[in-house]
Amino acid sequence: MKIKKNDLVQVISGKDKGLQGKVISVDPERQRVLVEGVNRITKHVKAGQPGGGAGGIEVTEAPIHVSNVMVVDPESKKPTRIRIREEQVERDGRTKTVRTRVSVRSGKDL
């Protein structure tokens, strides 16, 4: 997955289309991301449950599929695709391949 934790993303489809938020967590196995302030759901919590506190209605974020979000370009603040750039770097006589995520829109590193 090209989307990582703490990336700024924009929702491109669904009920929250157009909203931007920071990625809280990533689940590569299920291809889902949890985005701050997006796909909010209400959950009814019983009082007296362990970790539940006083109970009541709790509002929290639900995971969204990774295909419904795009990373926001740091320069233009618009959604962009991501490309991987590989560079050969020499350190202590060894060559090492360094992979860097690059914005397609502006060419800047992410």
From TrEMBL:
<dbReference type="InterPro" id="IPR005825">
    <property type="entry name" value="Ribosomal_uL24_CS"/>
</dbReference>
<dbReference type="GO" id="GO:0005840">
    <property type="term" value="C:ribosome"/>
</dbReference>
<keyword id="KW-0699">rRNA-binding</keyword>
<keyword id="KW-0687">Ribonucleoprotein</keyword>
<dbReference type="Pfam" id="PF00467">
    <property type="entry name" value="KOW"/>
</dbReference>
<dbReference type="InterPro" id="IPR014722">
    <property type="entry name" value="Rib_uL2_dom2"/>
</dbReference>
<comment type="subunit">
    <text>Part of the 50S ribosomal subunit.</text>
</comment>
<protein>
    <recommendedName>
        <fullName>Large ribosomal subunit protein uL24</fullName>
    </recommendedName>
</protein>
<feature type="region of interest" description="Disordered">
    <location>
        <begin position="90"/>
        <end position="110"/>
    </location>
</feature>
<dbReference type="InterPro" id="IPR057264">
    <property type="entry name" value="Ribosomal_uL24_C"/>
</dbReference>
<keyword id="KW-0694">RNA-binding</keyword>
<feature type="compositionally biased region" description="Low complexity">
    <location>
        <begin position="100"/>
        <end position="110"/>
    </location>
</feature>
<dbReference type="GO" id="GO:0006412">
    <property type="term" value="P:translation"/>
</dbReference>
<dbReference type="GO" id="GO:0003735">
    <property type="term" value="F:structural constituent of ribosome"/>
</dbReference>
<comment type="function">
    <text>One of two assembly initiator proteins, it binds directly to the 5'-end of the 23S rRNA, where it nucleates assembly of the 50S subunit.</text>
</comment>
<dbReference type="InterPro" id="IPR003256">
    <property type="entry name" value="Ribosomal_uL24"/>
</dbReference>
<dbReference type="GO" id="GO:0019843">
    <property type="term" value="F:rRNA binding"/>
</dbReference>
<comment type="function">
    <text>One of the proteins that surrounds the polypeptide exit tunnel on the outside of the subunit.</text>
</comment>
<dbReference type="GO" id="GO:1990904">
    <property type="term" value="C:ribonucleoprotein complex"/>
</dbReference>
<dbReference type="InterPro" id="IPR005824">
    <property type="entry name" value="KOW"/>
</dbReference>
<feature type="domain" description="KOW">
    <location>
        <begin position="2"/>
        <end position="29"/>
    </location>
</feature>
<dbReference type="Pfam" id="PF17136">
    <property type="entry name" value="ribosomal_L24"/>
</dbReference>
<keyword id="KW-0689">Ribosomal protein</keyword>
<comment type="similarity">
    <text>Belongs to the universal ribosomal protein uL24 family.</text>
</comment>
<dbReference type="InterPro" id="IPR008991">
    <property type="entry name" value="Translation_prot_SH3-like_sf"/>
</dbReference>
<dbReference type="InterPro" id="IPR041988">
    <property type="entry name" value="Ribosomal_uL24_KOW"/>
</dbReference>
